[in-house]
């Protein structure tokens, strides 16, 4: 039997479609129901569905008045404020292509993005970096707010496969790339409602991430609105350590965050959360120790999902189907995925290989903007190659083995950093760790472990602990305690940066 998961395709996306019209499809019906709460220590800003749609369509009119036309690109330099989703949906409503960007980017980085995509407009709030020589007009967030009350534009309907929005990869394995998604990408997220979230229109979903991250944008905003639920988002001044109290105060029923946020919240006992049903985790592998600690502290499970900028989240556990321990979960119903060898052929069950997603998946990207050859290189026949190593059990459950370019070599045998980190993280003194292959001589590399400790611990103790859990060839030969592990803006562990830093010290 070959490691292919396919339980049939999802319902087809309507041929004539608009992402924003779909997300706000229940806005008139729900009217005064609260769609968005931007929480802060001093209070909360609330928006009803009616107010949200009016602001979106008024802003779309404003973009037309500013001279933008369908297909133009609009760069968003906005933080965690209500202006972000309004700008994003207004552009999509008008068939303008929004390009969300991290507020942490430097002027040089934003300059490169502008050179890549040639925007016709930049919408920016005060204090965020702009291109060094802006190639187009810059509209302030304050000026955009003045568009909310303009006469509403009509939703621009069209081919569901036309370009809808552009997002940038995190750049953890090279230069960030501009990923182009079709309007239909939002339709694919329907498979997550049952396959990951257990989301209903009565939920109040709190997401802890930045709006520019696709995990936050989709899970924290667009999906709750599509379902008619309420999105809870931390605003300026809401530090991560406040999230527990905000969850309790705003009666969150679902909490979504990266694993690092869960670890941070567990440093002190979280408050009682009587309304919380479960948590969601994505962005990097959730350590089993963190999952178990959260469940003990709150009495609620955490359901993990796996995805990427090019295809969002398509493998997960859920309230309807709990993932077996140590696995990512199952491909969501409607997905077609496979585990592939170096030739692009499917491997047998329980055999490591590269995870592939079928071209037919409605959530798969159209391609990398302006990089047709690079787009072609990511495909092998039917399959989009994710670059992630996994194995598939006979029932379809996927076990994550790490990024293909993160894999380590121990005496000619490939070793997953996830396996080493899981063993080390089980030690009671370790908060988190990263395993990487480092160069100690010109022709010699070893497995090294970098870790953050909550209590002092001797290297001998760690060596004995790990040796009881891993084969000798998998055990680190070097242990280094650090104050923090390097991570990207969205909390992803940057293993390559650790390895590069160590290698430079030994040059």
**Tally of DSSP helical segments:** 16
Look at the structure and give the CATH class of the largest domain: Alpha Beta
Rg, Å, rounded: 23 Å
CATH architectural arrangement of the largest domain? 3-Layer(aba) Sandwich
CATH topology of the largest domain: Rossmann fold
* Helicity range: 25-40%
Helix and strand composition category: alpha/beta
How many strand segments?
A: 29
Question: Average pLDDT, to the nearest integer?
Answer: 91
The total tally of domains equals 2
CATH homologous superfamily caption of the largest domain: ANL, N-terminal domain
| Oligomer class | single chain
> Shape, please?
globular
Strand order of the largest sheet: 4-3-13-12-14-15-16-17-18
- Enumerate the spans where pLDDT stays under 50 for 5 or more consecutive residues: none
Please outline the major beta sheet. Answer: 9 strands, mixed
